[in-house]
Amino acid sequence: MTTLIEVINHGPIRELRLARPPVNALDTALCRALISAVNDALGEDVQGLVLSGSERIFSAGMDVPHLLSHGADRDQLLDSWQAFFGAARTLAESRVPVVAAVTGHAPAGGCVLALCCDHRVMARSADPARPFSIGLNETQVGLVAPEGIQRLMRRVVGPHRAEQLLVGGQLVAAERALEIGLVDELADGPQVVPRAVAWLQGLLKLPRQPMLQTRAIARADLHEALQPEHIQLERFIEAWFAADTQNALHALIARLGKS
User: Fold this and answer.
1) pLDDT digits over 8-50, tens only?
2) Largest CA distance in the chain
């Protein structure tokens, strides 16, 4: 069986590396594997988690061809989206700190997973003319970012800037992401995971229970954002079948086929 999540231990810190070539697209199986890997780590008393991707790509977001393969089967589509939002909630509700080691591009669902973490370290591109990008570009492909996902963006960049980014479906370069607070650090590619581990090591030097309890209070709004009433998945699924959404999604597939 193919391993979708690679597990690397750094002492009491566990790295969970997305491993679904070529771009770590989030299908149902990968989302469920991530949920399982986080829960396994918590069951083994790991003290901190790093979520990483592959070189040049953290995650390309939801696997649109996989979703479209469900056709008109609403139950399958609902199952796939439940798996994704379940993965996001699992990261957000982790009782130990989680750092996103954003090893490359992180559009859409990749950005959502990063926003659910405590801290984000993003890779600088070796070619300044081709920077890595991150953001919620849902409107570009005909989707609506649910209220709960919009709250994740507002939480880190503020309401007005979040509105501009979300409505325009903008992806921003890593350097700009740092400027606006969408990520917390930049590092050269090979140093992204070590920087994530180092950040956690610093946190773990603090008195454990006060740190964890303070963290839980500080992240209460994150937990609230991902509650079902703020995602409204049934409404989201209904909108999936709208003509303009389907046209935009199939146009995306056509572009991907030419690249």
Assistant:
1) 999 999 999 999 999 999 999 999 999 999 999 999 989 999 9
2) 54
Residues sharing a CB contact under 8 Å with residue 64, sequence separation 6 or more, in sequence order: 25, 141, 249, 252, 253
Give the full edge-to-edge strand order of the sheet including 56-57.
56-57, 104-107, 133-135, 172-173
The dihedral built from the CA positions of residue 176, 172, 152 and 189, taken in this order, carries a sign that is negative
Query: What SS3 class is residue 232?
Result: coil
The Cα 136–Cα 92 span in angstroms is 17
Q: Which residues contact 174 (CB under 8 A, 6 or more apart)?
A: 122, 123, 124, 125, 131, 132, 133, 134, 183, 186
CB contact at 8 A, 7 and 16? yes
Q: Quick check: pTM over 0.90? A: yes
pLDDT in tens, 115-172: 999 999 999 988 888 999 999 999 998 899 999 999 999 999 999 999 999 999 999 9
Residue 258 reports pLDDT greater than 80: no
CA dist., res. 188 & res. 5, Å (int): 23
CA distance 70 to 73: 6
